[in-house]
User: Fold these one by one.
Assistant:
Number 1:
Amino acid sequence: MVRHDRNSARLEGGIIFIVQSGDQSYEAITSLTKEVEKLSRGLKEVKILVDHKGVGKIDIGARKAAFNVARHLPYDKMAFYGTSPYMTGLINLLARSVGKQHSIYFAKSLREAQQWLK
């Protein structure tokens, strides 16, 4: 498991599990993205599970980094849980802007997110 600020990423049963916690900056997002790219190497299908329960403030740099992630991070499916309504709207907007709206899912629980990724 690798931690960036209070974010972390690990490979668990073929799924990349990300925990985002605390305030998010450009540096925090880009550092976490690099780790996800490393973890995804060699995976047949890239499935990502994101825990957003502890996310704090998101500065403009983090939003710019998130746009780059939406455009360039190769993944097949990405499920989020613990996401605020604001973040849900922002992520949906980013996903639609790059044509990936059908590969993301917002779950009410960890279990629901895991089921969708199967």
Number 2:
Amino acid sequence: MKILSDAQWASLTDAQLERELERRKQKREEQERPKPVENPDWSRLIKTCEECICEHEKGESVDSDLPHYIYEEAMKAVFGPDIFKWINEHC
């Protein structure tokens, strides 16, 4: 993807900008919504959850980022390793 400078953006006509927006909209619509994988690999999610239990067993406070890590691993297990690429393109 080519990055345009401010001057290059300023030189585009409204029609060119509208065409680009329409192209991007169509591209987003053409990309399929992620589907769950047939055979999820739960190993990384299980490992992350086990780390949480280990911290509790040791009487340590749980890392405040741990829920986020669990969410990430769950999403990757269910939808595959590229799920966040799709999320980042659609948010």
Number 3:
Amino acid sequence: MADKRKLPPWAYVRKLIKPRFEAAGIHVCELKNEKYTDSQGNLICQGSGFPTFAHSMKMKYRKYPFEMEEVIRACQPCHQVIEGMGYERMLAVVRNTINRRRVPVDAIFKRTS
């Protein structure tokens, strides 16, 4: 388990990374091309419908500050889909999405591992 006292609060990190996403031109759901569907087979992505930050892993697995900024923009329905995927798949989806970006988002923390 991560020592939560060593990690910055999410509100602080969000305040720092939000302008970096804006500068990179990331304003919509980054999962829109994944074609996630509901139980009836309907596409669920809302595209630009109030995208939130979706983390690569749940808080209980984070150990380093850089993991706090390992996020993508996702609409609420897509965010819910990846939240239910389990640790390894959720991590892979977020990291693959980050790696496919045309414009990188500047990091605020350095990798320590």
